[in-house]
Amino acid sequence: MRLALAAEIREIDHIAITDYGIPGVVLMENAGIRVVDAVCRQLNGDVRGKVITVFAGKGNNGGDGLVVARHLLNMGADVRVLMVTDPTNLTGDAKVNFNIWKKMGQKVYPIHQANGINLVKVSLLNTNLIVDAMFGTGFKGVVNEKLGRIIQLINNNGAPVVAVDIPSGLEADTGNIGGDCVHADATITFGLPKLGMVLETGASVCGEVEVVDISLPKPLLNDHSSKRWLIDDQLVSQWLSRRRNDTHKGDYGRVLIVAGSLGMGGAAILTAEACLRAGAGMVTMAIPEPLHDAVAGRVPEAMTLPLPHINGVLSSEALDKILAKLESVDVLAVGPGLSQSSETIQLVQKLLPQVKIPLVVDADGLNALAKDASILGNITAPMVLTPHPGEMARLVQVPISEVQQNRISLVQQCADTWGHTVLLKGPRTLVAYPGGQLYINPTGNPGMATAGSGDVLTGIISGLAAQGMEIKTAAVVGAYLHGLAGDLACKNLGERSLMAGEIINHFPMAVSKVAT
Prior knowledge:
The protein is of the alpha/beta class. It folds into two domains: 6-223, YjeF N-terminal domain (Rossmann fold, 3-Layer(aba) Sandwich); 235-515, Ribokinase (UDP-N-acetylmuramoyl-L-alanine:D-glutamate ligase). Helix content is 44%, strand content 15%. The protein contains 21 helices and 19 strands. The chain has helices spanning 6-18, 24-42, 60-74, 92-103, 116-123, 145-157, 195-198, 200-206, 218-221, 233-237, 265-277, 292-298, 319-326, 342-351, 364-371, 389-396, 400-405, 407-418, 453-466, 471-493, 500-515, and strands at 51-56, 78-83, 108-110, 129-133, 161-164, 186-190, 208-212, 228-230, 254-258, 282-288, 303-307, 309-310, 313-314, 331-334, 359-361, 383-385, 421-424, 430-432, 438-440. A ten-stranded mixed beta sheet has the order 8-19-18-17-16-15-14-9-10-11, with helices on both faces. A seven-stranded parallel beta sheet has the order 3-2-1-4-5-6-7, sandwiched between helices. A two-stranded antiparallel sheet has the order 12-13. It is elongated and about 85 Å long.
């Protein structure tokens, strides 16, 4: 699903009004009606006699709130409109709806004045539901102290809150919350979801998000040149092709996984199992020779390539055997459980620039690159890098806190600078392509913060790519299915008990859910 910035939504509205001839007041009316539908659902379908408090601002968001108030009043609700601005500041379509409200004999209660806080307290005493229509998508920065106090009263009231388009205090483009912000139970957003609403912080205050149609022309919404997308079932399903009847294992690709070291053989096992479960035709684990018996016995469906080692970690002498094996495989995965020994780092740094097939680099593969990031400029194979925030911090040599504060800008900058797809893990995993294309993954849960989860993701991406999917597409699809499998596992087992292997076990159900 396409994600919009505030300026893009303003432009869509403008074109709808000027080029298509749809009056702005019609769009506002439609928006208000769709919010009313949500209010009715929150109150189990009957608003008669219910006390509903509408907080309205001075812009179109406030105008939407006045439409909501009018329709709820007509349906028998006891509606109170509290305005955070002087009503004389209203203009355009918002003023039209204010005048209608007044002509219906209804009052508005300005709460920007000295006694505003007391008015809010009294109004909220017995309210059954709150409608937040104070600030729209144009809001940036921090609400002032008085509005912050009003928002605190809303959040502490306990009545359900329905936000109009976006919760007040949330920045639509960044998801930043600089101060107080309304915590909505439901957000009814118009036309398209806004970028900031699906990022970690924004998602935490939006509640259940519903994207509704307010009669904006579809050609304006279906702009496939957009560079920001929320990954969803529809997007992923178009990339999951059915298998033909007349096929064999060679049709579904061969993957080589360079992984494991003494004490971390499980990383190779999880990566291989996930790769096979994702549909790869054949998988080979390239592992230090001492791990062979233990690892091979755990994944009988996979082949093994025992490699030279020093004290149980791959040595630089393994390079020639790996390069020779690359002649007969379609995808290479490097990194899970390799260790950070100097020999292994040297091996990875020599190997990656010589690879010609699609490549996934994770874990200690990334740590080897972090020792000399200039190597990234010498890698010509189509590649996906899959760092968690700590690995990303090492790659770009900044504190983890800086990575977390600038996730979108940093992942896009790295993809452009390195010329490769970058998948930055975390709540709302980001996948950035060179050139600005950004995908945000909504699946996943805290139970997936467990050892081996990243190895499973590496295996899934590699397995999808082996079947002919572009490696960058496999990163998007893999992130979504990995998180969805984790969500299904969490539903059955709970967050505390979820192990990485359970993500693999639930992967088939995730695929079935999306593909049907």
